Amino acid sequence: MNPSIDNHxxxxxxxxxxxAAPLFAVCAALLFFIPIVEDPLSLFFFxxxxxxxxxxxxxxxxxxxxxxxxxxxxxxxxxxxxxxxxWLNAIxxxxxxxxxxxxxxxxxxxxxxxxxxxxxxxxxxxxxxxxMPRAQLAVIFFASVVPSLVLFAQIKPGDPLTYILxxxxxxxxxxxxxxxxxxxxxxxxxFEIDEDLKASRARASYSAKLASxxxxxxxxxxxxxxxxxxxxxxxEQIRSLATNAGGPEGAKLLEKSEKLILSVLRIRKIIxxxxxxxxxxxxxxxxxxxxGSLIEDSLGLCKEKFxxxxxxxxxxxxxxxxxxxxxxxxxxxxxxxxxxxxxAVQNLDQKSVRIYFMDLPHAVRLTVxxxxxxxxxxxxxxxxxxxxxxxxxxxGTGLGLSISRSIVEEHGGExxxxxxxxxxxxxxxxxxxxxxxxx
Length: 439
Fold this sequence. Notes:
The chain is α+β, with helices and mostly antiparallel strands. It is built from eleven helices and seven strands. The longest helix is centred in the middle third of the chain and has 86 residues, at 160-245.
């Protein structure tokens, strides 16, 4: 199930509770002050049940208000209290209804009031318990099954009313429960369609931006490669002349020419990496590709950023094997995880990001671990949702992890947030190629 959709549905449930709970509190107060039983012992338990119903209704209303007022941030704190309040509502109102049925004759006013209480608690709670299986069981058992059993026990031969009442009560309660479940199933489908549409639009926009970046990078690469070729040729000529010249001056010239050649090669490699990263590869076939080359190409685009920011980027030994993938897409996943890790350690004195691997029987697992503050427990389930971000406005779209997870899943792997005592740790798996020898 999609946690985002479930949370939105729970918010809708709480909005309904915000209306129902005060009404339940008023009804409980009326039952306490105007009891429908007379026996002292029954009266005691009846008023206790009414008091619990009143208090639990207040708790339910307060929890629903907190969730409605503060939104998803309060859901984790108050959702449990809201559910427990509904349980107590069901048990206490069920007790009142059962005692009222036991203490009165079929057809009497008190008997009918007890019946109304039982049906009202089920009908009024049906919308709130549709997403709470345990609360649903509590309501069904205490507010429906037990009173129904009492009604069936009170059946009198020759009195049609005693036959009709339990049948009507059972039919109404079943209708309320089934109708509420169907209602929320329809809402869930609508939310799922909206979420899929929103994510599809986001991916289309992201792909369009990458395509534009790819066109621009292609033009830039063409313009830069020509002078780079000339620079490389001139640098190689200088190296050749310095080698032939010999002596101290020749040695200095040779050293400078070597540095120039390395710089040109580095620029060329960055351009190749930019072209690889920015092109649209969704329709590319999966190929056997060296894991080492994949890591090298990805790091070529961000290694300098880490170095200038004094972030210690630790790369464990890369297994010498091939993976079956679309290299461009996996490179995007690696860069996204590295950029998130980079942002997470920005404000630390000691900044560290580590990349390590685990060689599995049919796949390889790559993990990016940083020493930042980590992911708070309350948002762990949200980090892969589209448009969810903890970055400052303008610094994040909330699409990186969502798109990365989709890419990894399309490759037959999984992207997960690992439990970690310190910092954040994300891992994803890529299937090995049949021939795992690196090229």
